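Table S7 (text form). Paired inputs.
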Amino acid sequence: MTQHDHSGDANGFFDVKKYFLAKNLKKDIPASIVVFLVALPLCLGIALASGAPLFAGLLTGIIGGIVVGTVSGSQLSVAGPAAGLTSIVFSAIATLGSYEAFLLSVMIAGGIQIIFGIIKAGIIGNYFPSAVIEGMLAAIGIILIMKQFPHAVGYDADYEGNESFAQADTHNTFSGLMVAISKINYGAVIIASVSIAIMLFWPKVKKLAIVPAPLLVVIAGVILASVFSSTGFALQKDQYVSIPSVNSASEFFGLLRMPDFSQITRGQIWITAGTIALVASLESLLSLEAVDKIDPIKRISPTNRELIAQGTGNLISGFLGGLPMTAVIVRSSANVNAGARTKMSAIMHGFLLLLSLLFIPAIINLIPLSCLAAILLMTGYKLARIGLFQHMWHKGLPQFIPFVVTIVAVVLTDLLIGVGIGLFVGGFFILYTNLRNPYFYQIVKDDNGKKVIHIKLAEEVSFLNKAAIQVTLTSLPKSSDVIIDGSNSRFIDPDVLEIIENFKHNAYTKGIVVQLKDIKPRYDVPKLNELTYKP
């Protein structure tokens, strides 16, 4: 794997030789266990909040891991049911009148996403400013800390995986913390504290680090919960993982639900599908960009292929009875922090979800939520580390302000709204910077020693540069000689050309002599293949 390995699969969708290399599996197998432990309660919680069967949440996680993980070009992104879609799913099921009708919408949404990928709509993912993505990551880290703290101390009436400020239990992120503290369970606190200590100190012992710390956390949590069961520190039933029991393969297949294809012509089905496709695509692209940002190898994931992968996942999920899915930043960042190297980690986590549902639900239901909360607390800490704030501050205010605004907006609203606010503020600073860089301005002397103002236009002069050029031209001193040089320009916006022509036409009234150098009457936008290197 190299830094220029964009898709990660030079030989197709799945490069078997690379993914089964011992050096990669040594990291991917432990990481898959971590992602499995993180994904398990999140799949259940999001299904519960969506008003869907718990089985649907697990099924979506399984498909997201195995199918999307295989088709995607990203090496570290993990797909599954998304918290950002819960309100859409909940209202859609009620509006459409049946879960089967909703499943049809999910299938159609998947088809729309595949079309998005084919027409290369994923290019929008390349336009998210870095400061906004960094802010989103830090905000997710802060949200994880605040949302998982109630689970760590043993009380949370809100569903697992909620990322919104306003909660379904009538509280918000801050008031939820206060309620949790007032209803603290000391058994859960002890388990969470021991879990965090293990996460901090276990990896430092190199001889022992071969056993993943999160796996040890779960084992310790199960043992402690069992010891506490006959004491005053006993955990309550809702403080454990609770997955549905499936006793046989036939029972598993009996839980699958089929879409109601008879409603294909119903308008509301298509409106719901379009909404899901748009929101799921945006969340996936944001997550993909964020994961590439924290990838230690700095690989670049193909955005259009990701849309096709997500669309394929949603098509299958809707057909089998699952929920809509996206690439999810919480699971993906846990995957990165656990040391994953290839997509095998995401794929194997999907198989682990399937195996846990089929063969060991009773064992899985012994896991306390407080020890899983500890894993997510550590993930949140790494995403929102102090060093990141210092790094962004040193980049200057044009980077730091959008970064902080995005954090505050995401924490106080939700992911998409918060990022939208961050993009608006980030866009302002981009415009401000762009306005100041449309040309090079210098005063030179001609052969007769007369001063000449030489304005050399940049390689690309867009509509955004219109105001700056207008101000510069109108403020030129009277009775001066001016050369406007377009020899470096590959593109000049028609509005800017109009300003230049109008200035030249009217300059004589101020005694200004204008000379245009290498400025064409029309410029066509360069095609992408004209801007790429050709050996």
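Next pair, protein 2 of 2.
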Amino acid sequence: MTLTPDAEVAVDPLTPPPPPALAARLADGAAVAWSQPIVVPTYLPEAPSTVPMYLDHRVYQGSSGRVYPLPFVERIASEPTDHTWQAIHIENRYLRLVILPELGGRIHVGHDKTTGYDFFYRNKVIKPALVGLTGPWVSGGVEFNWPQHHRPATFLPVETRIEEHDDGSVTVWCADHDPFERMAAVHGIRVHADRSTVEAVVRLHNRTDVRQSFLWWANAAVRVHEDYQSFFPQDVRYVADHARRAITAFPAADRPYYGVDYPARAREVPGADRIDFYANIPVPTSYMIVDSAESFFGGYDHAAGAGFVHWADRRFSPGKKQWTWGNAPFGHAWDHLLTDEDGPYVELMAGVYTENQPDFSWLLPGEVRRFTQTWYPIPGIGPAHQATTEAALHVDLDTTTATVSTAVTRPVTGRLQVRAGTRVLAEHTTAMDPGEVYRLRADYRGEAVEDLVVELLDGSRSLVSWRLTVPDDDEPWTATEPLAPKDVPTTEELYLTGLHLEQYRHPTRSPLPYWREALRRDPGDSRVHLALGWHAYRRAEYDRAEDHARAAIRRLSLRNENPRSTESWYLLGLILARIGREREAIAALGKAAWDGGWRAASGVVSARLRAQRGDVDAARDDVLALLEEGANDPRLVAMRILLGRRRGEDVSARVSAAQVNSPLDDLLRHLTDGAVPADGGLAVDLAMELAGAGATDDAIALLEQAATSEIGPCGNVRPIALYLLALIADRAGRPETAASARRRASEVDRRWCLPHGLDAHDALVAARQADPGDGLAAALLGMLLYAAGRRRDAVNAWRDALQTGFEDATLHRNLGLGAYAVLGDDDLAWRSYERARALDPNDARLLFEQDRLAERLGRDKQDRLARLEAAQRLVSQRDDLTVELARLRTAAGRAADALALFDGRSFQPWEGGEGRVLAAWDEARDALGLPRTEPPTSLGEARPVVLPPAALREDGTTDYFATSLPELLLFTREVDD
């Protein structure tokens, strides 16, 4: 084994050498980790839009691209600057890793010291493109995506901690909260002292009171070229597109896929149908394996003689996927947008509790999921035909000889063996080290190939074994579009179709028509009433939710007072708690606890209610009973500690013990040393957790701090923190504190304040009840309701805000959006946008939206042109406005002036704008009689080899499987749910 010299590592600015004390430990054989910033040329995102972006109909990775309550970034700096990034470095004798906590805790560098090979794509710059859910997204390394893809927190920071273990291994813990539903995720990057493996040790926790959908995909990027091959287990015969809308054979595509006729290409160039090689894929393409009994996959660089393996137990990690921009000018343009010099990459993605995208699973309230994923570099064995976390095998078979190549992940005395049945054909025992290739040849003449077994053993323990697999050739199923509700044959299918649409967060189909049709046929269907009850509860429609919950209970109790599931009682308890009927809520939750599936969740809520009422001993007894029964919900541990503290107990030992299982838990850290998260949203979460346990004074103190927190990429919680403080103070009988907090809420900075969730809803409703003249509360409540789908209620709240005399540009903009989409009042929509622009004439986003509205309303093109010409400073700030100005100039016979807008400007493709820059450029050139040519790289896009299918059908309906729907991003007539 040859190790890369330390001097070579030291000169790399991304991988500085460890501090002297750690260097000594590294030399002694331990794995080490340390925090040390790195300076990376970075194209920084510009400030996000100040208006809320309601993009729930946006198609993103096959599901809804809803971004609210996060601010949305629409532009990236066109030039890099040297930026200092927090970085955590991990090293052992075989590996070197760099983790970037400020970018979601992603692995930025994965380097194999034994071969000098970067087994993960190393991007020497941070160059975001507008690919992420909230805008910026960077390529390279490994991104951990949850609760959807790409992760909402891709460009947000995580909290970190380095843990050194007694066995010489180290773990870098990265913790974040899902910014949508506030679920908690921790991923630990673990490196052992004596192994070449990289482990992701993951804990997901649904810390909410409702069932939540989620998925987890780890996105590993690898540098590619003509000799890079993605490999999957030998039993993989077919792969599928997003949502299984199309399939093809693998590795040789046997039909057109993504519009590319691979069999025809192979007839011209043999092998051109092999989609396991990046070089053969000319268009942006995803494929996910349909099924496999194996737990590994990976990629291999034939030119470098190195690659990597991913392994995770296929029982919970069946997802295996490749994505590429495509090896053609269109894809190369995207490569250029994402790096300066590091070239193309593909993503080899591993899904846990998911097989496809979108393919969401469920987490029950309080539920915890734990799992691990493992990556490791492989030297020149070739693509792995079998792999475990211990070793990988490659087997070449000719007519008479089996040639076996293997590599290990830790030092072993390995016995490599080729057998035919029980007869040993060849065997060799030797000391093996990571980074080395070990080979064995065996003559198998006279033996059946299917009888061959290749195995690597360490003593009597099998590290990895292989035998030939012949995959099943039966074609798998492909997805179909659901029938219209009236055509669905059964109420069960209506219920399940609605559930699917909800679970998979479908961007253009609502579950409500299916559930309403089911109730039309059977008005008492308990499944549908329960689904509608949850839907209403999430939208804070408490009265409607209660009606549905009680209707479900009536049907369930028709023959059986003790149904198999008590979920309806649990929902009823949550609703009653929200509307202040605590005694009834506790009773309903008590009934819910009769079912073991809902006992822990209902017990948490019941204990919380008792604690808030001051009955600390009863709450403690509830919690202790659940813990003694083995309930695995970290919320119970937190409640036990908080209630103990309220009783005057010394809880320090319990806190220390809890921190072992819950690294980076904000509550435990706060109880240890009073630490408060720097992020305002996390501070609010912590305050509400304390308030839930009846620790009112602590909660108020934390909300006071949150009200002065920094306004960052997660938004601005200052006004909402004060409204929540007022709500808690009112419930504690402190009306003067509450009134002061509400008054102060109107005085703090409200930029990027995007209220979200039931607590914020209840606080804003309470504020309006306390002071009907609080226009800010009405304006913020409207934003929350609009994002929740209660759009007519939102428009009414915005009108109420104006009636109080409150106004700002965002309020008028929101009302204009709702007037068009919900009320169908085009005049009000136009007047609202005119007023918004008058209040904030320097907001280019408002000018863009007003121009979109003008086009929707059929306004004269000359008027639109004049408006944009008069505001060219604003137009120049946005690519989409520049494109619209160019198109209007071309339409007005000024094509030369239109073409001039493209000179010297670097465009960045944006969601919903795919192809618009190139189309406008072509329009201007066509008008001038210039030939169609390949566009300059400054346009940010190139001509696609194949045009994607149109999202809108000829009859005006939307393709159920559409991948891009720019028409639905703004100004779509909607039916209020």
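Residues 625 and 631 are 9 Å apart (CA to CA).
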